[in-house]
Amino acid sequence: MIGKLNHVGVATPSIDEAAKMYRDLFGATDITAKRALPEQGVWVAFVNLPNAQIELIEPYGEASPIHAFLAKNPKGGQHHVCFEVPDILRARDEMRAKGATVLGTGEPRMGAHGVPVIFLHPKDAGGVLVELMQEPGGGH
Length: 140
Prior knowledge:
By secondary structure, this protein is an alpha+beta fold. The longest helix is centred in the first third of the chain and has 12 residues. The mean pLDDT is 95. The protein contains three helices and eight strands; from the N terminus they run E-H-E-E-E-H-E-H-E-E-E. The protein has a single domain, classed as 2,3-Dihydroxybiphenyl 1,2-Dioxygenase, domain 1 (Roll), CATH 3.10.180. The radius of gyration is 15 Å and the shape is globular.
C-alpha cells in the first residue's frame, strides 16, 4: 500500500536556525521559505533533497501540538515519517481494519503539500508517528 517516502518531519524551536544548520553543515541549497499553517498550529519549511524532503516544523501559536514534543526534546528532533499512498480514504480504512489508530477524527485534513493526510499513532507503528499523504493526483 505505501508508496515512496515523501519526507521526514523534524520538529525545531527555530526553522531559521535549523535551515542554517542544514545549509552550513550539510550543504543544502534548496530550502523553501517558512510559511504558516495556522490550522495545524505549525510553521513549515522544506529542505529539498534529490530523493525526498525534510520538513522543518516550528510551533505556531500557543495551541501547537509541537510544544509538547519540544518540551520533551528542547533542541528538536525527528517528529514523523511521511509515506505517499494512492488513495488516502482507502489507506485510512485499511489501517483501521488492521487495528491501527488513526489520530484525530480520522477524517483526512489538508497537509503542507496541499493534499489530504492522516496520522497513525506511534504505538501501532513501532514507536514512530507515521503520516500518510495522498499521492499528488491520487484517489480522493
